[in-house]
Design goal:
two-stranded parallel ribbon; mainly alpha; 7 helices
Length: 171
């Protein structure tokens, strides 16, 4: 609902919390970079200064990437992150190799992402989607790259198995 006051409410509540307790740890997440930028601008304006370091304003994906980086062992590096056209190229190759004509490329890309971010999905070899998902994952691994689905799944898995610490926040 555009114009319903969601951002205003978050900004006012954040500013109020920080004024009452400057050491409070806050995490605000949103879906898009544009909405995060707008939140940051409005919070800084409301506070009459920069947003303190104990207040994280981020997209879900950026927060997951930050969390993943925090969980790295010494000298460990993440594979290169791909998105956009690079990611589309990998999807296209898997699609062209395994398509049976029942899906268009855009639908196949959506299915691959849905499958790769499902905690209980196990790709079934011998099916077009299963083979696309398997081949796509192999291409990423072979080229030492990862996509946003990899980041999200690594963080969720790490949180479950205790290898990644959750962010500590009061709000």
């Amino acid at each position: 609902c555009p114009g319903s006051g969601k951002t205003r409410l978050l900004v006012n509540k954040t500013a109020r919390i920080l004024r009452l307790n400057p050491d409070a740890r806050l995490i605000l997440v949103s879906f898009t970079r544009d909405s995060v930028a707008e939140l940051r601008i409005r919070i800084a304006k409301e506070l009459n200064g920069p947003i303190p370091k104990n207040c994280v304003v981020s997209t879900f994906h950026s927060l997951a990437l930050l969390q993943l980086r925090r969980g790295l062992k010494r000298n460990e590096k993440l594979p290169k992150l791909i998105c956009g056209e690079q990611q589309s190229d990998y999807v296209r190759r898997a699609f062209l190799k395994h398509s049976d004509g029942s899906l268009d490329e855009e639908s196949a890309a959506a299915m691959i992402e849905t499958c790769r971010t499902s905690l209980d999905y196990i790709p079934e070899a011998g099916t077009p989607i299963g083979d696309m998902v398997i081949d796509y994952g192999k291409m990423l691994a072979r080229n030492k790259v990862m996509d946003m689905s990899d980041i999200l799944m690594r963080v969720v898995s790490g949180l479950f198995d205790g290898t990644i610490e959750p962010f500590s926040a009061d709000y």
